[in-house]
């Protein structure tokens, strides 16, 4: 068991077909961080492996704006997701 965990807010987006590790592993890690009070946001995109670029015309389209909105909210000190 890890104790004394702290850290920065974490935004993660992954493809469902990542061969390196299951997207579920990342989702579980973010649930754990969230339970510790570390703000998180998780997105998974169908049909993608490890890389999906900027996502134009795909299920991942808009991920950059979502990430920017998440980080901007954290810079303003917002606690909600």
How many helical stretches? 2
Summarize model confidence as the mean pLDDT.
85
How many whole angstroms does the radius of gyration measure?
14 Å
> What is the makeup of the main sheet?
2 strands, parallel
Instruction: Give the N-to-C terminal Cα separation.
Output: 26 Å
Strand line-up across the major sheet? 1-2
Residue runs with pLDDT of under 50 for 5 or more positions: none
Quickly count the domains: 1
Number of strands: 2
Helix-strand topology string: EHEH
Helix content estimate: 25-40%
User: So what's the overall shape?
Assistant: flat
Structural class: alpha+beta
Strand fraction equals 5-15%
Written overview of the protein:
This protein has 81 residues and is an alpha+beta fold. It has one domain (10-75). It has 2 helices and 2 strands. It has helices spanning 23-35, 63-75; strands at residues 10-15, 40-45. The protein has a two-stranded parallel sheet. The chain is flat, with a radius of gyration of 14 Å. The relative contact order is 0.22.
Topology:
Elements: E1 10-15, H1 23-35, E2 40-45, H2 63-75
Parallel strand pairs: 1-2
What descriptive keywords fit this protein?
single chain, 81 residues, alpha+beta, two-stranded parallel sheet, 2 helices, 2 strands, 32% helix, flat
């Amino acid at each position: 068991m890890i104790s004394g965990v702290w850290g920065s807010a974490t935004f993660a987006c992954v493809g469902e077909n990542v061969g390196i590790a299951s997207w579920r592993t990342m989702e579980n890690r973010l649930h754990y961080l969230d339970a510790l009070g570390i703000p998180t946001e998780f997105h998974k995109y169908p049909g993608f492996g490890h890389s999906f670029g900027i996502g134009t015309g795909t299920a991942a389209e808009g991920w950059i704006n979502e990430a920017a909105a998440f980080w901007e909210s954290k810079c303003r000190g917002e606690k909600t997701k």
